[in-house]
Amino acid sequence: MEKMSKKERIIAALNKKEVDRLPFSIWYHLPHADQDPVNLAEMHIKLAHCYDLDFIKMTPFVNYAAQDFGLSLTFHCTETQDPEVRKLAISDAKQWIEIEPLPGHFGNYGKQLLFSRQIQKQLNGEDIPYVQTIFSPLSVAWKLAGPRVFEDMKAHPEYLHQALAAITETTINFVKLNIEAGIAGFFFSIQCTNREWITEDQYDEFGVAYDVKVINAYKDITFLNIAHIHGDNIMFEKVAKYPCNCINWHDRRVAPNMAEARKLSDKCFLGGINEIDFLPYAEPEDIFAHVKEVVLAAGRKGLIIGPGCVASLDTPKVNFYASRLAVEGL
Length: 330
What we know:
The chain has helices spanning about 5-15, 35-50, 65, 105-125, 135-145, 150-155, 155-180, 200-215, 235-240, 260, 285-300, 315-325; strands at about 55, 70-75, 85, 130-135, 185-190, 225-230, 245-250, 270-275, 305. By secondary structure, it is of the alpha/beta class. It has a single domain (about 5-325), classed as TIM Barrel, CATH 3.20.20. Helix 7 packs parallel to helix 8 and helix 11 packs across helix 12 (about 315-325).
């Protein structure tokens, strides 16, 4: 089979077609650089070249979408320490109604837009897709309030709905500007489908309605649209019905595994690498067997190899190289 470009390889995987080799990507936070979007773009491109990635998953600092709404953070700006939450933004239910829609170029949203524009500029036409990370509206609300968001959806649903509508509008404003910056799609992170936190009916009301509105703003425009289901006890089947074409979750740690998921969805899957319990501690030679296991479970078509979420900052770099080499010949 003739060698494919990175974009061709990704599109073939999304469409469950044959590929010349399995596409691969890896990503992790860069807390020493993520407050400088120009440098952050440069570092993402360097990592893409270093590990020969088939797409760049843009990785802003984890709470960028919440800080502009009042979340207080401590920034360490070291290679090993992500920003820490100093104070939540919501301590009283009535504070939800203070949240108003923001322009997509405001504050930290604006910094991440510059991040997208800088990747576009610095790639200078190079054929490697890049996707922006966005968060579901309920995930942003959870970042703002912590566990009390689940209390407020019972006691003061009208307040929370008002806030979710404002966060949704802000996210869509941000989405539209990123599309203009040439992104291939979005990594839509969903962090609140844990059944220990929320019921299916509650997620239908406070999650699905807003999630789909955001996804509908880009699903027919961009080609690599990933739904990332974060955490344990996830509502996989619910998210699998979303209008996205790729699903990413902690497939090596939580149900369903890849083989089970194939019975639940016909979409492309992104994953196969246990970035928490395995990759930081593995011997490089063991990574080849780890990746081969998931290919046997999921099949070669409709599969992109990558982590279930951001890789640990203490992962030896040689293990990232081994992960990329592991896709050769499979």
